[in-house]
């Protein structure tokens, strides 16, 4: 995984509540066995008509947000099934950070374990970001070390994150790589067990 410390980008405002994992990545695209290649299917049925043409008024089809790395959504983001493909598709599309007031627990955990930073802010703060992002291109800087989101208007918001996940994301570790940080301790333990 890639380490996350600071991410500066315009935001993509997805002003929708209760976005479930089937809307994030629809079930017909789950046959792949790799973690990559899912980005082109992100919000597929919101992005494309049945004939494959773009739905012009959907935010991901707006050229202003083409290189955005920060998705801002409304409450209960990632509800529904527990598929890991949802954070994979968000990451593969190019987002590193999702900001919302609340998340489904399993989705939130899956984000952390796959290198996507989900930030919880107050509803009023998220609505402020969404309003700014819908009016014009609005840039923010996310600082994981300081646990802040700062808008180009100078307004700053603080967020909480479990120290365990913060450490993983700052170092770009998944849980296997985290285990390898204790390799010397594990080897010493195994050696003691052989001598016992």
Automatic annotation (TrEMBL):
- InterPro entries, per database record: 3-IsopropMal_deHydase_ssu, Aconitase/3IPM_dehydase_swvl, AconitaseA/IPMdHydase_ssu_swvl, IPMI_Swivel, LeuD
- UniProt keyword annotation of Isomerase present: no
GO molecular function term, any single one: 3-isopropylmalate dehydratase activity
Q: Which CDD domains match?
A: IPMI_Swivel
What does UniProt give as the signal peptide span? Answer: none
Q: Which reaction does it catalyse?
A: (2R,3S)-3-isopropylmalate = (2S)-2-isopropylmalate
Highest taxon above the source species: Bacteria
Query: Which keywords fit this entry according to its UniProt record?
Result: Amino-acid biosynthesis, Branched-chain amino acid biosynthesis, Leucine biosynthesis, Lyase
* Pathway(s) the chain acts in: Amino-acid biosynthesis; L-leucine biosynthesis; L-leucine from 3-methyl-2-oxobutanoate: step 2/4
Q: Which Pfam families match?
A: Aconitase_C
Domain Aconitase A/isopropylmalate dehydratase small subunit swivel residue range list: 2-122
* Enzyme class (EC, first level): lyase
Query: EC annotation?
Result: 4.2.1.33
The protein's job, in short, is: Catalyzes the isomerization between 2-isopropylmalate and 3-isopropylmalate, via the formation of 2-isopropylmaleate.
Q: Which HAMAP family match?
A: LeuD_type1
Q: State the family it belongs to.
A: Belongs to the LeuD family. LeuD type 1 subfamily.
Binding partners and assembly? Heterodimer of LeuC and LeuD.
Identify this protein by name.
Answer: 3-isopropylmalate dehydratase small subunit
């Amino acid at each position: 995984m890639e380490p996350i410390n600071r991410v500066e980008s315009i935001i993509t405002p997805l002003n929708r509540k209760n976005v479930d994992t089937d809307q994030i990545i629809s079930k017909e695209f789950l046959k792949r066995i790799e973690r990559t290649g899912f980005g082109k299917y992100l919000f597929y049925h919101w992005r494309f008509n049945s004939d494959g043409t773009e739905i012009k008024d959907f935010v991901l089809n707006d050229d202003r947000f083409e290189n955005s790395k920060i998705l801002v959504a409304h409450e209960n983001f990632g509800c529904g099934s527990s598929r890991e493909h949802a954070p994979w598709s968000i990451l593969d599309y190019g987002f590193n950070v999702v900001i919302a007031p609340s998340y489904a627990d399993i989705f939130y955990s899956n984000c952390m374990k796959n290198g996507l930073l989900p930030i919880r802010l107050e509803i009023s703060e998220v609505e402020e970001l969404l309003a700014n992002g819908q009016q014009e291109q609005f840039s923010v800087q996310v600082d994981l070390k300081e646990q802040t989101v700062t808008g180009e208007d100078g307004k700053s918001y603080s967020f909480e994150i479990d120290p365990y996940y913060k450490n993983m994301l700052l170092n770009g570790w998944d849980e296997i790589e985290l285990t390898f940080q204790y390799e010397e301790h594990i080897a010493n333990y195994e050696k003691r067990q052989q001598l016992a």
